[in-house]
Write a structure and sequence with these properties.
single chain; mainly beta; 8-stranded antiparallel beta sheet; two-stranded antiparallel sheet
């Protein structure tokens, strides 16, 4: 609250409210930035949602969904507090494309199955009751907002740079995710013209897998032994690039998501 507009000179001298009288005392205090907690904003969400589902049949079930959407709204991190309309853009949770599919396949081996219905107890315990459950997901990257190192506008806002070219690259790489030469710092005492959340980070693709084996321990007690692999293919899902103009790593990606992680779990049902 009480922001100073862009311009030269002392920031406090350019604020809308510079002094205030303390009630009942007559004392005058100098005002600087006023901390204000304000919960407001809005968003619009439009989407095409689709789903395909196949119930259990011959030990197979499938579920897949795809969403094509757009989310726009007003979030925090304002540049010019007197031009809130310029802060409208894709929200941080905007993902134009999102796909997820999962399934369960009970292998046709063991008692009551196509193969091995007459197996002995020992063979059933070793080879029967297995199932495989994959989960695959893919999503667009997250919107990214640009900032400028320092405060060229000499205001209270979060400066964004000026756009002077095409920031898109045909073949982006982790070392150069976007065309960094397409941006220059905003001139002193002015605001940049880059729109809110102009860029977009890398998308993600992931495959998880569960291999399950069921055991009938007693008439009333069952056990599930599960081998779970998260990011089975050990795919590299890059993190977001640095978006601060003036930073040595501007446009560079220096992180990635979780590598493959395997675990074994035992579950008792009674």
């Amino acid at each position: 609250a009480n922001p100073a507009p862009a311009g030269p000179g002392n920031i406090n001298a350019r604020r809308l409210y510079r002094t205030a009288v303390v009630p009942t005392t007559g004392d005058t205090i100098t005002l600087a930035n006023v901390t204000r907690i304000q919960k407001d904003g809005w968003s619009q969400y439009h989407a095409l949602q689709s789903k395909i589902e196949k119930r259990y049949s011959r030990g197979i079930s499938l579920l897949a969904s795809y969403t094509f959407s757009r989310t726009r709204g007003l979030e925090g991190g304002y540049q010019d507090f007197d031009n809130i309309a310029a802060e409208v853009g894709p929200t941080s949770n905007d993902r134009p494309h999102y796909f997820v599919a999962s399934g369960v396949y009970e292998l046709p081996f063991g008692r009551g199955k196509a193969f091995g219905d007459q197996w002995s107890t020992a063979r059933q315990a070793l080879l029967g009751g297995w199932s495989v459950s994959p989960i695959v997901s893919a999503a667009s990257g997250a919107p990214l907002d640009l900032t400028v190192n320092g405060n060229p506008s000499n205001s209270n806002g979060t400066d964004r740079p000026n756009v002077v070219g095409d920031w898109r690259l045909d073949t982006p790489t982790p070392d150069r995710w976007f065309n960094t030469e397409a941006f220059v710092a905003n001139a002193p005492f002015t605001f940049g013209n880059a729109p809110k959340n102009l860029l977009r980070g890398p998308g993600t693709v992931n495959l998880d897998l569960v291999i399950r084996k069921g055991f009938q321990l007693t008439e009333r007690v069952r056990a599930d032994v599960r081998f779970e692999s998260f990011n089975l293919t050990n795919a590299i899902n890059f993190g977001n690039p640095n978006t601060q103009l003036g930073n040595a790593n501007f446009g560079r990606i220096s992180s990635s998501g979780q590598a493959r992680n395997n675990q074994i779990a035992v579950k008792l049902l009674f």
